[in-house]
Amino acid sequence: LGDVYKRQLHELVNYYHIGTDLSCAEAMFMACNEYYHLNLSEETRKMFSVMGLGMQTEHSCCGASTVAVGIIGLMTAKEGQTDVSNMEGYQMIAELTEFMLGFYGTLHCVELQKLEIVGVENPCHAIVEALAKKLEELLTNRRIFCPANGGQLSC
Predict the structure, then answer these.
(1) DSSP state at residue 61
(2) Residue 49 buriedness (CB in 10 A; 0-12 / 13-18 / 19+)
């Protein structure tokens, strides 16, 4: 992808999603893994891979959204602490959910696929790109990730 220009998260999502066989969830996972230098395993990729197409049923939550929530958890949960202690993660997930509901009116995969978005053939491409932009904004604003710091977490 080149050393001269570091792609933003949404550009990586588009790279992995548009014109490929990857689902929205796989594209979000691959992009986050690369962009945030997470070095997550192939086993982790396989775990997230079935979340695309609304958990493969189209009747569940958007797969890219589900992966984004997982990435927030990975980056905000503290070692040895229980889930109930992760207020920062909860706040970010609430903001991400409010963003999706505010812009698209739903998190439901099949409903998202039916949306008509001006200028795009496949609404999922625009939705996943917007979701990636929002995730990057949330993580950068919370100083969980600093691109200027060589991709280090918790700067």
Answers:
(1) B
(2) middle
Helix (H) or strand (E) holding 23: none
What is the C-alpha to C-alpha distance for residues 132 and 117, in angstroms, rounded to an integer? 17
Q: In whole angstroms, what is the distance from residue 13 CA to residue 17 CA?
A: 6
State pTM to two decimals. 0.84
Tokens of 151: 């991709």
Number of helices (H), then strands (E), in the chain: 8, 2
pLDDT digits over 20-48, tens only? 999 999 999 999 999 999 999 999 988 88
Say which amino acid occupies 106.
Answer: T
Short-list 48, 1, 49, CA closest to 21:
49
3-state SS, residue 35: helix
CA separation for the pair 12, 135 (Å, rounded): 13
